[in-house]
Amino acid sequence: MSLPDPWQHFVNARRARRVERGLERILRPGTRASGTRIIRNSRELVSFAGNDYLGLASHPAVRAAAASCAKEFGVGAGASRLISGAHDLHAQLERRIAAHRGSERCLLFTSGYHVNVGVLSAFADADTLVASDELNHASIIDGCRLSRAKVVVYKHCDYEHARAMLASHQGRRLLVSDTLFSMSGDMANVGELSRVARDTGALLVLDDAHGYGTLGGSGRGVLEEQGLDESAAHIVTATLSKACGSLGGYACGSDDLIELLLNEARPFMFSTAGTLPDISAAMAAIVIIASAEGRALRERLKTLGKRLREGVHRHGFETGGEAHIVPVYIDGPERAVALSRRLEEAGFIAPAIRPPAAPWNRSMLRLCLSAAHDDADIDGLIQALAASSR
Ligand SMILES: Cc1ncc(COP(=O)(O)O)c(C=O)c1O
Questions:
Q1: 156: pLDDT confidence band, cut at 50, 70 and 90?
Q2: Digit-coded pLDDT (tens) for 175-195
Q3: Which of 99, 103, 263, 329 sits most deeply, having the most CB atoms within 10 A of its CB?
């Protein structure tokens, strides 16, 4: 069917605008050869662009769990949990996560994106003021929009700014932050967030997507890394698609908060439950995360982060963050894109992040580490970066 004229005009104008701003994106298919290797156009590339931080997506126990679950139970859950898609495996995983986090209750969603949209739109409404960190993830921004709340954006990790904005509102208040920021790679100060929330009577929602599994002695995430228990926040969300190597997301909190989500979070109510092999894979991953093997993988991730930062500093680059997401700041978006291209020619995937995804003066190569990288991957990348920037 041909497009009516106004729609053809709309589609053309949108494409022209993207191209003019240098924002046209394309899919670049490839085959995943292992946790850190991607084959594109018959070339094997070392990827520093993934979130499989512990390499669990291809861990034998995680693969085996998904495969045997598919064999025994099939794949799709068949319906949303509230209709007929609630399987014992979902409930078992929720209990396992709640026990690992030390929280009262957990609720699974189909992805981390669904969780944040669901939590924010269920708790915030037109009478709520939401204070949101300027570097929060898009799923938080979209959840805020859907909630119809009044949203104020505070300067990155500036908790006095957040406090002042929250204090100016008469009705219900909600404070929301990533714990480990996905672009800048730095961590929120959860103790400070907790104090602001307590003093202003705000509901504190934290997104631990990049921290769960990768940080803290037992892998509980940024709260554990900072010596805090779960009572530091009202709701903690996270994803099963990064360190857990699977797909899905969860929210943890008290029984009454989770009960509200189960009844009112639309992405939970109106979307099919997570597939059973994904749930089994996540369960196997969390068993590893909480074990001595998980601890060793986290240590390895830390060691690799140190090696990478020291190496790029030796060549005069500035880095940010403190964990397994390593932004390498580059002067100007064009230079960042050119460097990323040259690195790919040298065999490394190191994506350039530029405005609007990065602040206007802060283009970067964003390097994501995995415990599955070896020392030679890191050293090779450092050498290629130094050679490409000459
Ligand atoms: C901070 C943060 N929260 C949530 C998500 C969404 O998670 P998922 O990929 O499971 O939808 C992401 C994904 O990149 C993220 O970086």
A1: very high
A2: 999 999 999 999 999 999 999
A3: 103
> How remote is the CA of residue 390 from the centroid of ligand 1, in Å?
35
- Residue nearest atom 4 in ligand 1 by C-alpha distance: 112
- Range scoring the smallest mean pLDDT among 16-20, 187-191, 256-260: 16-20
Helix axes 276-289, 60-73, angle to 10 degrees: 150
Q: What mean pLDDT comes out for the span 207-228?
A: 98
Q: For the domain that residue 133 is a member of, what is the CATH number? A: 3.40.640.10
Q: The CATH number of the domain where 368 resides is what?
A: 3.90.1150.10
32 has a pLDDT exceeding 90: no
Output the CA 387–ligand 1 centroid distance in Å: 33
pLDDT in tens, 271-284: 999 999 999 999 99
154 C-alpha to ligand 1 centroid (Å): 21
**What is the chain's length?**
390
**What is the rounded distance in angstroms from the CA atom of residue 144 to the CA atom of residue 206?**
14
Residue nearest to atom 3 of ligand 1 (CA): 209
* Number of domain units in the chain: 2
Among residues 260, 289, 318, the one where a domain terminates is 289
CA of 249, closest atom in ligand 1: 10
Residue type, 202: A
Q: What is the arithmetic mean of pLDDT over 252-278? A: 98
Indicate if 175 and 273 belong to the same structural domain.
Answer: yes
Do residues 120 and 130 touch, judged by C-beta distance below 8 A? Answer: yes
Q: Is the dihedral of CA 359, 51, 208, 89 positive or negative?
A: positive
| Ligand 1: nearest atom to the Cα of 181 | 1
Ligand 1 site residues (CB inside 6 A) read 111-113, 116, 137, 139, 178, 182, 207, 209-210, 239, 241, 249
Residue 215 counted as domain residue: yes
